[in-house]
Give the backbone structure.
Amino acid sequence: MADRIKGITIEIGGDTTGLNKALSGVNKEISSTQSALKDVERLLKLDPSNTELLRQKQKLLADAVGETKGKLDTLKEANKQVAESASNYEAWNEKYEPIKKQIEETKKKLTDLKEQSKDADKQLASGEISQEKYDAIQEEIKQTSSDLRVLQRSAKEVSDEFGNPVSPEQYDALQREIVDTEQKLKSLEDQAGKANVTLQQIAIAGEKF
């Protein structure tokens, strides 16, 4: 899941966060509950009529249903937010890509200049270069850093203008994740219903006995 919807950001309670990060907690809870369910299932195979185990299974399934509903709600909220901007992707990309390219080139230039600066420190100390040349390198680093900040602001402004749209691939991945989660929720609800019926049947059989 993490790779499929990587890069999608949503707003929750006024804070913008990555969708993967927003789901990380509930995914851990789901994983923990599923692990506990498997343990109970293994024990039930040895003792299918154990009412205590059946009650544990019933509770764990109820927890799993609640956790999966929480995940589905978050995915649907993300879908609602990104759906409004997904149609802007092409227009956004057309304006954003040239800036992105400039940012990458400027970052590379800045890295190279900083490497030069390291050498220049030694060269200045040993008298291999003049103070004037050393100062010129430092000034270029300062200017390039400033240029990078301007470009990064421009990139943010473009993304804000178009609503931070997701790519068609990201949008499709989100739709698949919603469908998968809906199917898992239905399966868990079915299992919970069956577990409840089994527990009732054993209780009725016990009363008759």
